[in-house]
Amino acid sequence: QVQLVESGGGLVQSGGSLRLSCAASGRTFSTYSMGWFRQAPGKEREFVAAISWSGGSTYYADSVKGRFTISRDNAKNTVYLQMNSLKPEDTAVYYCAARMYGYSRYEYEYNYWGQGTQVTVSS
User: Fold this and answer.
1) How far apart are CA 34 and CA 22, in angstroms?
2) Are strands 112-113 and 68-73 parallel, antiparallel or unpaired?
3) Region 30-40 average pLDDT
4) DSSP count for the chain of H helices, then E strands
5) What stretches of 20-121 show up as alpha helix (H) in DSSP?
6) Average pLDDT, stretch 30-55?
7) Helical residues (DSSP H) of the chain, grouped into ranges
8) What pLDDT does 88 receive?
9) In the chain, what's the furthest Cα-to-Cα distance?
10) Cβ neighbours around 123 below 10 Å, total
């Protein structure tokens, strides 16, 4: 069982930056691949980024490639999402998720989810 708690969301102006954190419970964090997803009002939840258990491989949605960076610190049981050059269309609730085996862009393949953190980008 893995419990995930996101933090770091908030209100930022267009062009600004935020860093989201996702703290995981349990001693097996390093065996899980991790992903970030987001859900804007009135829209379905969508994939943002994913990282392998070791941190050696990462994968991004085209909409955030070059602006967002996913990373992890297995010693701290934490995964991060550094978001730069934020745009109003990045406004959403951001969720982190964990799954065994390889990373994925498909939310149905993730076993554990956090409660989400709100990111609002003003124009």
Assistant:
1) 10
2) unpaired
3) 96
4) 0, 11
5) none
6) 96
7) none
8) 97
9) 41
10) 9
